[in-house]
Design a protein that fits this description.
Blueprint: E1 6-12, H1 19-27, E2 34-41, H2 47-55, E3 61-66, H3 71-79, E4 86-89, E5 95-96, H4 100-111, E6 115-123, E7 128-131, H5 140-148, E8 159-162, H6 179-188, E9 195-207, H7 210-214, H8 219-235, H9 238-258, H10 285-295, H11 300-312
Keywords: Glycosyltransferase, Transferase
Organism: Riemerella anatipestifer (Moraxella anatipestifer)
Domain Glycosyltransferase 2-like: 7-152
């Protein structure tokens, strides 16, 4: 089998406790023709030294430092060093599962895919679930629709790319929240992009612990999310994706609602153009009720919901 060079980009920020597990999982891959580009995004912990020691005897790995600028800028910098025919991303606190790269490259060659989407595990190391993409339709418009509706995750780490489809594509400077979905939509709106789905084995473990699930999203990231919504709305045709964009907006509205203890905002006025559509949307009933109450100016239900959620967690 042809063994093309696979480039891997890993942004790192203060990941001294987790990054070695990530790098070890990549080093142990059965597919060995790798270029692993690690971007230290201005870490203030010992990440740089930890990584340097780990990679010193393996010339497939390179470590590049930049002043802290966020994950989007780190990935952009990584793209400048890519030499491979194929590209994949990883986060510095996750695990690439055994034989993942071998499997993905082989399937990408067989299918001649521009984007290959694999199954993944989600959760902590002991309690996790398999996210199975076997029912995803291999049509880029359907895939975009599923991402906007939250049916399919927009993460980059379970997707293998032909590097050529990044021609003319750039991460949005200063957008470090929902940036994965935005770059995917930029790619998928190009002409003649072929997307395929493989589901024989999971390829990635997306580490999500209880603490990370309960963290409050900062106002800075919510504002960045608004920029993503604006960009997506400009990229996609209203007549084809109008209803899907409404789902994206309602999900963003929910993020404001569930994090508004910290910031005093009027939920009713955020994406007010979709307020009347919430009644007919297929979203969890508890969130639909909260949004409707907020639109009526009744906020006690949200406060009660948050208190109950904190108690049961």
């Amino acid at each position: 089998m042809n063994c093309p060079l696979l480039s891997v980009i890993i942004p790192v920020y203060n990941a001294e406790k987790s990054v070695l597990n990530t790098l070890e999982s990549i080093k142990k891959q059965s597919y060995s023709n790798l270029q692993v580009i690690i971007i230290n995004d201005g870490s203030t912990d010992d990440s740089h030294n930890v990584i340097s020691e780990f990679i010193k005897d393996d010339n497939r790995f390179c470590l590049i430092y930049q002043n802290n600028a966020g994950v989007a800028a780190a990935r952009t910098k990584g793209l400048q060093y890519v030499e491979g025919e194929y590209l994949i991303f990883s986060d510095a606190d996750d695990i690439v599962l055994p034989d993942a790269y071998q499997y993905l490259v082989e399937e990408a060659i067989i299918r001649d895919s521009d984007i290959l989407v694999g199954n993944y595990l989600k959760g902590d190391w002991e309690n996790f679930q398999m996210i199975n993409h076997s029912k995803i339709i291999e049509n880029k418009d359907v895939f975009i629709s599923q991402m906007l509706r939250g049916i399919t995750h927009g993460g980059l780490w379970n997707k293998l790319f032909k590097i050529k489809i990044f021609d003319g594509i750039a991460f949005e400077n200063g957008v470090n929240f929902m940036e994965d979905m935005l770059i995917l939509i930029k790619i998928l709106t190009k002409e003649n992009v072929k997307i395929s789905v493989v589901s024989e084995i999971p390829v990635y473990h997306y580490y999500l612990n209880k603490e990370s699930q309960t963290n409050t999203i900062s106002h800075k990231y919510l504002i960045q999310g608004d920029r993503v919504v604006e960009n997506v709305s400009h990229l996609l045709k209203e007549e084809k994706f109008g209803e899907d964009i409404e789902y994206l907006k309602v999900n963003q509205k929910l993020l404001y609602l569930l994090n508004c203890d910290t910031y005093k905002v009027s939920i009713q006025n955020i994406y007010s153009e979709i307020n009347e559509s919430i009644f007919k949307m297929k979203i969890p009933l508890k969130y639909k009720i909260l949004l409707i109450f907020e639109n009526w100016g009744i906020s006690f239900a949200t406060s009660l919901f948050k208190k109950i959620k904190r108690i049961i967690q």
